[in-house]
Structure formats: structure tokens, C-alpha cells
Design a protein that fits this description.
The chain is an all-alpha fold and 203 residues long. It has two domains: 33-158, no CATH class; 171-203. The protein is 61% helix and 0% strand. Helix 4 (101-110) crosses helix 5. The radius of gyration is 30 Å and the shape is elongated. The relative contact order is 0.08. The structure holds calcium ion. Calcium ion binds at residues 134, 136, 138, 140, 142, 145, 152.
Amino acid sequence: MIDNRSQHQGGFRIFYACLLVMGANYFTVTAVHSYPQFQEFTEKHSGQAANCAMCHSNGNGPTGTGPGQIDGLNEEELKRLEEARKAFQPGQKIDSPILNEFGNKIVEELGRKEVLALVKEPEALATKLNKNLDTDRDGIPDAEEYLDGTDPTNKFHGHPWKMFLVNLNRYKQHILLTFAAVLLLNYGLGHLIKGIAVLTEKR
Ligand SMILES: [Ca+2]
């Protein structure tokens, strides 16, 4: 009897240990890959709606079975995910399938160690990013788009006033040439009308 009871107790211990390990793994997977603090900060700071697509491949975040979500990754994508998860130091090429281009650049620029530290102060992300980093090349740095709550991967999405200034600067030569052409046209038309008037008076 004693031996049987000991065996049962031993079996229960192993069972509970397995449950604990499974639980720990579950929370590791769900917690490690999802950092809504950045999204919450940008929404609060900018007043603009932002979803997980700001940094992730899938707008619903990294947890799930859809495209770009952890449980939907194929073998090759899982390998890329594991590689990205090891990149604790900055400067390593990141190609995580659960992150979009901006998310990958954040990890590439700062390293996972720094990103994890920033979870507690998401407002500091803007100051940590390189000011020249402009993923969508629309002329507005990623750090500003993060603060503005605009999409750093969409060159048609940006703060209206900044987009206006960027476009004004980009097309200033065209605008100056158009302005000069209009002035010359007005000048030429003025002289033409005067000439016609003089000829009419002479007749
Ligand atoms: Ca941009």
C-alpha cells in the first residue's frame, strides 16, 4: 500500500510539474512577443488610433494562427523568429516574420535587450531611434511617426502639416518654375494687349 501511495504521489508530482512547465511556456510565448505598451503610448500621446500593425506583420498582433502570427508560422519562419529572438544586441540583421519592416528595424537598431527595457518607458523609444531612420522614405522620421501615431511603413500616411512641408520642399523647384512661367505669361500677355491697343489707335 505504501509503495502504491508513493507511486501515486510521485505520479501527481510529475503531472503538476508538467502543468507548471506548460503554463510557463504558454505565458512565455504570449507575453514575450507582445508589447502593447508601445501601441498604448502612441495612441495616448497622439490621440490617433493605432493597432498592432504599427510594428507587427499581423494587425491583430503576434498571437494566433493567422499570417504573421506565431501559431501560423511554417518551419522556415519559425527559424527566422528564433534567430530574431536571440538578437539581444543592436546592429544585427533582423528578419522576424511576426514583425513588419518598422518592427524589425527597431530591434535591429536597438537590440532586444533595449527594446525589452523600453517596455517600461515606451515614450523613450522616440529618443532612442536614429533620427535618420525613415522606413517609408516619406521624409518624416520613424521616431516622429511613432509620436504622431502615423504609419511609419506607409509613405502616404503622415501628419498633414508635416506631409505638406515635405511635399513643398520636395517639389519647390517645380512650384518656382510654375510661378515663373505664370509671371512671364502675364507679362507677355500684358505687352501683347498693349501692342494691339496701340495699333488700333493708329488706325
Ligand atoms: Ca516616414
